[in-house]
Write a structure and sequence with these properties.
alpha/beta, 10 helices, Rossmann fold, 2 domains, 16 strands, binds NADP nicotinamide-adenine-dinucleotide phosphate, seven-stranded mixed β-sheet, Quinone Oxidoreductase, Chain A, domain 1
Length: 326
């Protein structure tokens, strides 16, 4: 069969022939229909993700996929490297899968879970979100940020969603998908800070979900600060999730003293065990139902698996996930 394989870190995955996997006892061979390229796989392949250290090489890449089982069921499933999912066939445990609604297409079903689960975790567990709250999504034009906007509004019942991002076209789309206010990021971070301060004064943020860090985060955190001793306490949970605008920030100490800012992160190591226990039984089925009903959506760009090398580093439009189809 053919698969996307790397021999060493930093290499672009290569489409090449490999032996068909053998299904161990209790597993079956499933035919892969679609596997999305996510940032986590790019980082694993680069050798820059903390999970790279334990990844044996050579490795077939890809963490999850939509596949068809021998009994005909179309499912969402996972398979970690070195037996990754960007391949024609993978071995799966047939009871450890999520059956897909018929009306969800392969590409959307493959692209949605990683980003939507992360957004769900950020809102429910890290963010402790309550209905009617005001939520700011920083980096809303990305795939995960876009899903955070949609889930905040339609799944968790946010009263007010403020979408902040760089790409004006995608920001316009987000206004149709659940954002009540959109704020564009350009090079003027002082202006961004002033705009966010104005929005926060009108409708205080209860929760910030940040996919950017760097200068936009500095502006957003600065906008939460108060500059007088009579300011009233308002709790804002600031959830750090991604760092596409920079890995570090400068944070004035007074930001944390002058306002009710609670700064936390969300990632594999900061999600409680009880949350992971609900993924297969509750959260993923709810997300596939939301995808099926059109409550959430994710734009995809479908390419043949044979084009994995070209697709790997190719820029996509904002908010669009590339999906490989064997
Ligand atoms: N911790 C977790 O569990 C977890 C899970 C999923 C994702 N993440 C992280 O979250 C981040 C976003 O993920 P994603 O899936 O949404 O990625 P994505 O679809 O590739 O989107 C990246 C976003 O970053 C924006 N961006 C890049 N550089 C920027 C800059 N200098 N200023 C402002 N915006 C900038 C892009 O803006 P444009 O739209 O203008 O291009 C785009 O919206 C990544 O760092 C990813 O690794 C973390």
């Amino acid at each position: 069969m053919y698969a996307a394989v790397i021999n060493e870190f930093g290499q672009v995955p290569e489409y090449r022939q490999v032996p068909e996997p053998e299904a161990p006892d209790g597993q079956v061979l499933a035919q892969v229909r679609a596997a999305a390229i996510k940032n986590i796989e790019r980082m694993l392949v680069d050798g820059t993700h903390y999970g790279s250290a334990q990844m044996p090489l050579p490795a077939q890449v890809g963490l999850d996929a939509v596949a068809v089982l021998p009994d005909g069921r179309r499912v969402y499933t996972g398979s970690a490297p070195p037996a990754g999912t960007m391949a024609e066939f993978i071995a799966v445990e047939p009871h450890n899968v999520i059956e897909l609604p018929d009306d969800v297409d392969d590409a959307q079903a493959a692209a949605m879970p990683n980003a939507a689960l992360s957004a769900w975790f950020a809102l429910e567990f890290a963010g402790q979100m309550q209905a009617d709250q005001t939520v700011l999504v920083l980096g809303a034009t990305g795939v995960t940020g876009g899903l955070a906007v949609q889930l905040a509004k339609h799944q968790f019942g946010a009263g007010h969603v403020v979408a902040v991002g760089r790409n004006p076209n995608r920001l316009g789309t987000l206004a149709d998908l659940g954002a009540d206010v959109t704020v564009r990021i350009d090079e003027d971070f002082d202006r961004l800070g002033q705009t966010l301060r104005g929005v926060h004064e009108q409708q205080p943020f209860d929760l910030v979900i940040d996919y950017l860090w760097g200068q936009p985060a500095q502006a957003a955190l600065g906008a939460l600060a108060n500059d007088d001793l009579t300011a009233e306490y308002h709790r804002t949970r600031y959830v750090q999730v991604g760092e596409t605008a920079g890995g570090t920030i400068e944070l004035r100490a007074s930001v944390l003293r002058s306002a009710g800012v609670e700064l936390i992160g969300q990632g594999a190591g900061s999600v409680p065990r009880e949350a992971f226990a609900r993924v297969e039984t509750e959260i993923l089925p709810a997300l596939f139902t939301a995808l099926s009903s059109g409550t959430i959506s994710i734009p995809t760009h479908v390419r043949p698996l044979s084009e994995v090398a070209a697709a790997w580093d190719e820029p996509t439009d904002s908010g669009v996930r590339t999906v490989l189809v064997p």
